[in-house]
Write a structure and sequence with these properties.
With about 100 residues, the chain is mainly alpha-helical. The chain is built from 4 helices and 2 strands, in the order αααββα.
Length: about 100
């Protein structure tokens, strides 16, 4: 159950790493992104597709570029991450007995 959440967080981290690199180096292509981030190109390609679907980047002839939605997203990013942290901390507060009762 928790493995899926961990997997999703790792994917989010990858998407944000790719977005950071686009913001800092636009326009930038897949091969350069893979080189800069040390992320395999097939995963870079997937992250770019997700970021494009979210409207945070756009494809251009020389490579990925940011859009008008990128700035507002980045301004709200810290709050989004804080919500994830808060939700995670709430999970830790759920007290479930770790031992099974003997019948």
């Amino acid at each position: 159950m928790a493995e899926r959440v961990t997997s999703e967080l790792e994917m989010l981290k990858r998407h944000l790493t790719i977005l950071k690199c686009v913001v800092e180096n636009e326009p930038i292509g897949i091969l350069k992104l893979a080189e800069e981030t040390k992320i395999p190109s097939h995963k870079v390609r997937y992250s770019l597709r997700v970021l494009e679907q979210e409207g945070l980047i756009a494809a251009s002839a020389p490579g990925a570029i940011t859009t008008s939605a990128t700035g507002p997203f980045l301004e709200g990013l810290d709050a989004m991450i804080e919500e994830i942290v808060k939700a995670t901390l709430e999970l830790k507060r759920i007290e479930i007995p770790r031992r099974r009762r003997e019948v």
